[in-house]
Amino acid sequence: MIDYIAMVKNEEMSEVILFLVGRYESGTTYPDMDRFFGMYKAEEKYNSYNIKLIHDKRALEESGQIFSAKIYGAGIQKGPNWKEPKFVTEKKYGIE
């Protein structure tokens, strides 16, 4: 079982976003990411995790690591420069 609370606590939000986008072929959605960070206690690490999520998502889009259709609820998918986060390759937090 993956320890998402430890992942959110110990990793950079942008790295966790890359993990979430890479989990499924269809990617994820912004509302799902927002719920994920809320559920796994991002507010304990970031004063306003919602604002950080917006900024980190935008930075990842600009770098080409993720792609978004810019429509509410649309999928956010891997971009041409997407790289698997280091904690995934190291199989931390129970990731297999």
Cross-sheet strand order for the largest sheet: 1-3-2
Task: Predict the CATH topology.
Answer: Arc Repressor Mutant, subunit A
Oligomer state of the chains in this structure: single chain
Let me know the number of strands: 3
Tell me the strand percentage band: 5-15%
Helix content: 40-55%
Report the uncertain regions: none
Largest sheet: 3 strands, antiparallel
* Order of helix and strand elements from N to C terminus: HHEHHEEH
Q: Write down the overall geometry.
A: globular
Number of helices: 5
Q: Given the helix and strand composition, which structural class is it?
A: mainly alpha
By CATH reckoning, the class would read: Mainly Alpha
Structure explained in plain terms:
This protein is mainly alpha-helical. The chain has a single domain, classed as Arc Repressor Mutant, subunit A. The protein contains 5 helices and 3 strands. The chain has a 3-stranded antiparallel β-sheet with strand order 1-3-2. Strand 2 and strand 3 form a beta hairpin. Helix 2 packs across helix 4. The model has no long low-confidence stretch (mean pLDDT 92).
Which secondary structure elements does this structure contain, and how are they paired or packed?
Elements (H helix, E strand, L loop, with lengths): L3 H7 L2 H10 L5 E2 H10 L9 H14 L3 E3 L6 E4 L7 H4 L7
Antiparallel strand pairs: 1-3, 2-3
Brief rundown of the structure:
The protein is mainly alpha-helical and 96 residues long.
Descriptive keywords:
single chain; 96 residues; mainly alpha; Arc Repressor Mutant, subunit A; three-stranded antiparallel beta sheet; 47% helix
